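hiii, so i know i said id send this last week but things got crazy w the move. better late than never?? heres the sequnce for the chain we talked about at the cafe, plus the structure i predicted for it. fair warning i was half asleep when i ran it
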Amino acid sequence: MPPVNISRPSSMTFLLLGIPGLEHLHVWIGIPFCSMYVVAVIGNVTILAVVRAERSLHEPMFLFLCMLSITDLVLSTSTIPRMLCLFWFGAHDIAFDACLTQMFFIHSFTALESGFFLAMAIDRYVAICDPLHHSTILTHSRIIIIGIIVVIRGVAFFTPHPILLKQLPYCRTRIIAHTYCEFMAVVKLACMDTGSTKRYSLSMASIIGSSDAILIAVSYAFILRSVFRLPSREASFKALGTCGSHVCVILVFYSTAGFSIFTHRFGKNVPAHIHIFIANMYLLVPPFLNPIVYGVRTKKIRGNVFRALGFKVA
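okay and structure toks below
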């Protein structure tokens, strides 16, 4: 019996396939992806610059928004430029270490995104349901502590991912049927039983995602209850409009991320191109929408941007 050709990942190179079945549309798919990425970068950098320059914006809401903007910039930049090289220039090769690095940033910063959505929901809950104590509850020191906890949680839970994959032997095809180095797509290439590794990844993603989503839902339920009790109908509609846009962004993030996670476990009959296309959405759409929903629709940020551009604000 001939020996099995087992490869150790010291200098291994993988091939990113892209979106299976849609290879002929890669060039065209790259155009909206690039446009959304440019908007995401400009929008998030603008928010960071405005909040940094304007001391009146050094409030909990805007500080959490800055944390979210940094997360969006890292998350989208770790995937989209490499993805565009694949779509437009046929750059399928990716070194194993670069693959693991990309994987770490994707999964850990996705957890950060979820954590900062929760932090912003809690901030809105305190601001609307207990406005008199908002400044005493969410002090700058507590905001920093919340940010540190969110970062430590994301890094701690997902650092084992690249470490686990680094230890595995690979003896199958080196083609990753994806547009980026997604954990499950890579672990399938190993030539040993990876059941425990898969279960760890799915359990961590499920625990973090579901717990954050439940707490966000509870926060907004209390917010809506308070909004409906407002004496002014105009104030109620304004608050509902703001909350509604926030909830839409959060739903896009959790629905696409959840679809991607659970398709690996239960969606064996989901076509690969649909799974991979939607898996790209939670890396691209929230960073694109967040500056619009949290920035453009926020009067203080919008006013400062207009003044910086030389426009008069009423």
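btw Strands lie at 13-16, 93-95, 175-176. thought thatd interest u
miss u guys!!
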